[in-house]
Amino acid sequence: MNRSIRLAAAFALVLILILLANLTWIQAFKEDEYANNPLNRRGFYEMKSIPRGQISTGGVVLASSEQDANGFYQRSYPSDSPAAYAPVTGYLSDQYGASGLESSYNAVLNGTDPALFTSRWLDTLTGKESAGANLELTLDPAMQQVAHDMLTGSNYEGAAVALRPSTGEVLAMASSPGYDPNGIVDPATASTAWADVTSREGNPLINHATQDTLPPGSIFKIITTSAGLNNGYSSGSLLTGAPEITLPGTTTTLTNYGGQACAGGGDVTLETAFSLSCNTAFVQLAIDVGADAVRSTAEAFGVGEQYDLGLPVSGGALGELPDDAALGQTAIGQRDVTMSALQAAVMAATVANDGKRMEPHVVKRITGADLRELNVTQPREITQAVSPEIAGQLEQLMLASERNTAGGRAGIASKTGTAEHGDEGTPPHTWYVAYLPDRDVAVGVVVKNGGGLGTGATGGQVASPVGRAILDAAGGA
Question: pTM, whole model, 2 decimals?
Answer without folding.
Answer: 0.88
